[in-house]
Amino acid sequence: MHAARWMANVPRAMERVVVVADDNPAMTAVLKLALRLWGWEVVIANDGVAAVDAIRSARPAIALIDIGLPGLNGLEVARVVRAGNAAPRLMVALSGYGEEQDRLRSREAGFDKHLVKPVDPDVLRAIMAGVIGHGAAGHVNGRSGVCL
Fold first, then answer.
1. DSSP H helical ranges for the chain
2. Residues 11-68: tens digit of each pLDDT
3. How far apart are CA 148 and CA 145, in angstroms?
4. Where are the domains of the chain?
5. What gap in Å lies between CA 103 and CA 32, rounded to an integer?
6. pTM value?
7. Helix extents (H) in 9-47
8. Rounded alpha-carbon distances, angstroms, from residue 95 to 2, 13, 23
9. What fold, for 24-133?
10. Distance between CA atoms of residues 30 and 147, nearest Å
11. What does the buried/exposed string (b/e) look like for 15-42 if buried means 16 or more CB atoms within 10 Å of the residue's CB?
12. Cβ(109)–Cβ(75) under 8 Å?
């Protein structure tokens, strides 16, 4: 198959699109700025229902989802998205909580990773690069002095 034909058949989820779902405008603004600087197209959702809609329509490679979203919470968003056929290659939970039971709930809901707020930008950038490079798996719980 010719490369051009193959590229025409690559699903949108393989592009550099990320959905950021968080009800905190400051958090979404900072994440959007950083992600755009790193070359990502960013779609913002401010509640759980909007997050599900954004993921279904944008078909992102990655979704960064706050656990404490209004409407559907982040865990419910992950379950709904995983039950459908529009799941991104990587779903990352964003949470203020990082105990083992919090990470376990994230995994059980369908998240691939669990990041504790404030998010370490180096950890986030590595996750983003890993999805484009070769995919990623596992859970990361990052905190540092430099925060997003």
1. 3-8, 25-37, 48-58, 74-83, 100-109, 121-133
2. 444 589 999 999 999 999 999 999 999 999 999 999 999 999 999 999 999 999 999 9
3. 10
4. 24-133
5. 24
6. 0.82
7. 25-37
8. 44, 24, 12
9. Rossmann fold (3.40.50)
10. 10
11. ebbbbbbbbeeebbebbbebbeebebeb
12. yes
